[in-house]
Amino acid sequence: YSGFMNTELLKNIIRQFIKRSKEHNFQISIARLRYDEFDNRRALVDNQFEMIEMSYEVRCKTDMLKNLINLDNPKVSISDKCDLQELLLLAGNIFHHGRFAEDSFITKEQSNKRYANWCTDLYNSNKGKAFMTYNNKLVGFMFFETQAESRLLLGGMDNKYSHLSILFWSSVFSLLPKGSIIKTLISASNLGVVNLYSHFGFIKENC
Question: What is the pLDDT along the chain (207 residues), one digit of tens a residue?
Fold first, then answer.
C-alpha cells in the first residue's frame, strides 16, 4: 500500500523491485493503492501490473452499531477454539471474492491454498478468534485484532448457513472492546458482504 507516494519515487521502487524479483525468481507480487492514486496506478500498469480487485475499507464505532441480535439458538454456539482441519476444509470452499480469489494469475486451487495458509497462520497466532458451530458443525469463523482499533482480519461463513451471518457477526462484535472503532477490508464485488456491513451501520472510509 503506497499511500500518496511521489510517483517518480514509486517508479524507482518498482524498477528496483522488479530487478530483485527476477534475481530471486518471484512469480507474483501484489500492490494496493487508493482509488484516487491515478499516477501511481499508471506507473504500476506501465510495469506489467494488472488491477485484480477493488476493495473498500469500512469502519464503525462499536457503540454506533445497528441491528445487532443476541444468540438465543440452542443449536448455535460461539467459541474461540475449533479443529484446525475442519477450519481448513471450510476455508478451502467458501472464498469467491478477494485478492486471492479474483487474481487472474492463479488457479482456484492455488487461491484456496493461499486462504488455507492464511487461516493456518492466524489460527496459530495470538490474534482474536471466534468460531460458530451449528449442531457441532463448524459453519463460520473470524480472526481479529484489538489494539488501538479493532480490525477484522479474515472471516467467512459456510454458504449453506449464510442466514446465520447476522447472528455470527453480532456475536463477534460483542467480543470487541467497548467504544473502539472497528475496521475491515472487503471486496467491492462481494455484494453480500458489502450489504452485511451496511446493515450494521458501517461506512466506507477508503476505496
Answer: 444 456 677 778 778 877 887 787 776 666 666 656 667 767 777 777 766 667 788 999 999 999 999 988 899 999 999 999 999 988 877 765 555 544 555 566 766 677 788 889 999 999 999 999 999 999 999 999 998 799 999 999 998 999 999 999 999 999 999 999 999 988 877 788 889 999 999 998 875
Say what the pTM is. 0.72
Pick from 71, 191, 197: nearest CA to 134: 71
CB contact set of 53 (below 8 Å; sequence gap of 6+): 97, 98, 99, 102, 103, 187, 188, 189
